[in-house]
């Protein structure tokens, strides 16, 4: 198996470090640092191999994914684990009956669409947060692995999420309301069906994306890249030579991770439109990598260069031939 072969190749580096130390080519302190680094790389490598092998298995065995059809392959996901940052490729699926979209290997791991931190890392952060500040607990999750560091904001969010989870767990286990759970679940299913019937059916949808640099609120020279994405159903004439967007909806913010933005867009589309009835979703912009990231997440999407940049590139390309521009 490829996993065994890759693991042995990685472990070979550990053996080489041991041999170099025993042969006197490496002092003990350097040996410990090298060993720690190689073992963490071994761990991340094995995790990547296992996740991608599981994804491959699901893709090859249709009986394991009844009702799910392949939308797209080789989408990337990054997750911070106890060994370090892991980046793996997975397959995007759509369910025939529920019209739900999902990465089935993420369902297998329990990772949510916007999740960037593994539960084990969250657990270590919580343990540290009991004794340390948010900032220090994020920096000292695993002192022997410098790659495993999360922001103070992320530590705070982990703690708040845990409090919510504890509340709902105690609520679900309350014997006084246990009998109402089935009734609640039935109502939720009915509400889903009603929402599905109310979704708009559009042959085409349009997404336009742009960006702008905005200064920091407290002054200074630092500037941030703000991202703007808006969805609409096309344009309609409201007067002579005047057009307006049909039912626009806007998303704006810094969004350091573009995936977070595009998953918000996907959630909105899935909530308001019958995506099965949509033939194409056109994503328009200047071609920046964060804009094209939407093609990996939004189903049935194609990229279209916006008019401004199209004209600009045509003028640059045809500038030598003025007659072609007239």
Description:
- Helix content is 47%, strand content 23%.
- The protein has 326 residues and is α+β, with helices and mostly antiparallel strands.
- The protein has three domains: 1-110, no CATH class; 117-174; 204-316, Nucleotidyltransferase, domain 5, CATH 3.30.420.
- The strands form three sheets. Strands 8-5-4-9-10 form a five-stranded mixed sheet. Strands 1-2-3 form a three-stranded antiparallel sheet, sandwiched between helices. A two-stranded antiparallel sheet has the order 6-7.
- Helix 1 packs antiparallel against helix 2.
- The longest helix has 33 residues, at 28-60.
- The chain is globular.
How do you describe this structure in short?
With 326 residues, the chain is α+β, with helices and mostly antiparallel strands.
Keywords, separated by commas or semicolons:
11 helices, 3 domains, Nucleotidyltransferase, domain 5, 326 residues, 5-stranded mixed sheet, alpha+beta
